[in-house]
Amino acid sequence: MTTDLAPAVEAPEALVARLAGVGRAAQRVLARMDAPAKAAALHAAAAALRAAESTILAANAQDMAAGEARGLTGAMLDRLRLDSARLAGIADAVDAVADLPDPVGQVIDRSVRPNGLELSRVRVPVGLIGIIYESRPNVTADAAALCVRSGNAVLLRGGSEAVHSNRAIHAALVQGLVSAGVPEAAVQLMPTQDRAAVGAMLTAAGLIDMIIPRGGKSLVARVQADARVPVLAHLDGICHTFIHAAADPAKARAIARNAKLRRTGICGAMETLLIDSTFPDAQAVVADLLDGGCELRGDARARALDPRINPASAEDWDTEYLDAILSVAVVDGLGAALAHIERHSSHHTDAIVTEDESVAEQFLAEVDSAIVMVNASTQFADGGEFGLGAEIGIATGRLHARGPVALEGLTTYKWQVRGTGQVRL
Amino acid sequence: MTTDLAPAVEAPEALVARLAGVGRAAQRVLARMDAPAKAAALHAAAAALRAAESTILAANAQDMAAGEARGLTGAMLDRLRLDSARLAGIADAVDAVADLPDPVGQVIDRSVRPNGLELSRVRVPVGLIGIIYESRPNVTADAAALCVRSGNAVLLRGGSEAVHSNRAIHAALVQGLVSAGVPEAAVQLMPTQDRAAVGAMLTAAGLIDMIIPRGGKSLVARVQADARVPVLAHLDGICHTFIHAAADPAKARAIARNAKLRRTGICGAMETLLIDSTFPDAQAVVADLLDGGCELRGDARARALDPRINPASAEDWDTEYLDAILSVAVVDGLGAALAHIERHSSHHTDAIVTEDESVAEQFLAEVDSAIVMVNASTQFADGGEFGLGAEIGIATGRLHARGPVALEGLTTYKWQVRGTGQVRL
């Protein structure tokens, strides 16, 4: 028997304020570390992940057992599952982030004023970043690595179904980072799965500098609705491909098939195909898709192309299927395609297939989406494919960063002013 | 007698949705106008402002009379008042914005991927911007000009005390813009002073792309608390100047005096002076300020410098006086100065005076403020002084834009991808 009192329960706001305080202090230390030191720390973290394989896989087995008992779907269990190869992939990804160029300290621009003041804009870390995510335990390592590489402290809040996996990954990561001089609190994992703690993160304006939600629509919607902290978010990817009259037929067929069917569940997958009414090979394009196992839902003119095409409802034009389903419309020229995209696109990624350069340039100029493409598959909408090395997400908002967001999107800038005693008149 | 029914009252949300809809349509037209066309339109708007002088001054006289009747303070009436010279200044400012380089279409960076895809990041307008402001009617023209120059549509909501002035300025501006091909709805003034309409603007996520509040603390605080739309805001300017041991005494005296007393009411005015305990000319610095009519509030060591210095309370270190009052502390070296600034600065603008270059560089690197300065007056924290030509405000947040925000801060970017038929493996 003990006479100790039970520990006082810490209110979620107090918990977040405490974690943010130590996180920010750690960030100040991290911000002073140079690029090689941060890289070395991330390599140490990757090594620690590999060394902790048995611990991490055992923790993951606990989550898997609990998930099966709770009746998680096969897809959810697959997202949750780790094995030796997947864990190696997670560690490799941390090594890869370590080797990316460090954006911190880059001089964006510089000028000298007539009075002799020298002005520079220099990239600096955003500060303390909150990541709220769901079942994939790899996010714990990916997000932490991107934040540390860019000099940010991070407060991670993963899903309850992955809690043991996340704790094990976090413990290994931090052990590696600390061994290389990074303060322990630079990477923190929320110690509770209490949902109120998420609310406290979202409203911690002034304590957390940016929240990045990573997960499904309901998570992102909750974060956007409740946040007082700026949010860098990924919403729908209702991506269009417009096959223009002057499209090369072979390119049009290959691009349409790839944009829809290479992987149907990613945000860059095409969800609506627009075909110019004078494009001569429309039937071949839709036949390819139908033969490839895709359900097509079309307007009246599209349905005339192939009897296998089902009728589209009004909602289809605004639906992100993330599946082998595609809405198809026949349109009269670039103007009609632009109007359809303006009305229905989620402004994530939209593409045109055409050999007419002036039409291509008009499409690139007028479609107001994060990514606009000519003669390429929308499935290229990805930080890795863009050469960014890794991405924290694809931002569908308009401010701060847009499209694939990697290290640069985790920085801001400061103005440095070097004078020689100037005073203002 | 009329049998007409009274017009149905439009709910604030419906009003904002309607204005945002026509504003966005107008923005699409504006986005297609090239830089010379937008410049010509702004010059036409400036000319229209000059031509409407008598109408605008008559409207302003109405506001002034109402303001006097309502008992507005002298300072408020002065902010509200227009005369021939002030109106000419407003028109000149519109001309000046017209002549600024257009950021739209600038290529931020470009790369070619191994598969031949060409990637460019190109600056584009943010879209539809909401400006919520208080009594200065010049904001109506300034903000509209900056938005139009950068290809944005704008929804303006000014203060009720300036309602007639704002309407007259808006009418003249739009007449000029329309004469040069800009759609009328590119610059809209909220037709009601109903406060619920402000709330509807703040929550119009997806309709308005960014809100910029311009006004006092209570306005900005309300906007930040209630907004669901991203906000680019200016909070406190608790600016520090640290006089290091190796400061040049003449520079230190001139900078301290200028930073505090040139204009005490601007956000870049110094509010706290930190003096190294080994700086030999501390007495002269504080004497200059006291002789210049400034009240000094000091810690114990500062008060030992001059008997005229009053004691500082704990709150003084966190106060933006915007007046001829200054808090003064004596600190032991750079580390203590950095710690004080980290704790008390609002991270707007902080400066060091020193001839020691390595200390200067450490200060520039470690102080995490929007603007960090060496050997210069904090009063230079201004878009015009930074060569930006004009500013929509000084952002104290960390995302999107930081410090003085001018045209570039009113843009975002899109990724343009030019392919030759690439599909993703």
TrEMBL record, chains A, B:
- GO cellular component annotations, sorted alphabetically? cytoplasm
Residues of the signal sequence?
A: none
Do you know which PROSITE patterns this protein is assigned to?
PROA
- Class in the EC hierarchy, top level: oxidoreductase
**What positions does the domain Aldehyde dehydrogenase occupy?**
13-279
Query: Which reactions are catalysed by this chain?
Result: L-glutamate 5-semialdehyde + phosphate + NADP(+) = L-glutamyl 5-phosphate + NADPH + H(+)
Q: Quick one: where is this thing mainly located?
A: cytoplasm
Q: Which GO terms describe its molecular function?
A: glutamate-5-semialdehyde dehydrogenase activity; NADP binding
Keyword vocabulary terms for this entry: Amino-acid biosynthesis, Cytoplasm, NADP, Oxidoreductase, Proline biosynthesis
Q: Which family does it belong to?
A: Belongs to the gamma-glutamyl phosphate reductase family.
State the HAMAP family in the record: ProA
Task: Name the chain's protein.
Answer: Gamma-glutamyl phosphate reductase
Organism annotation:
Novosphingobium arvoryzae
Identify the coding gene: proA
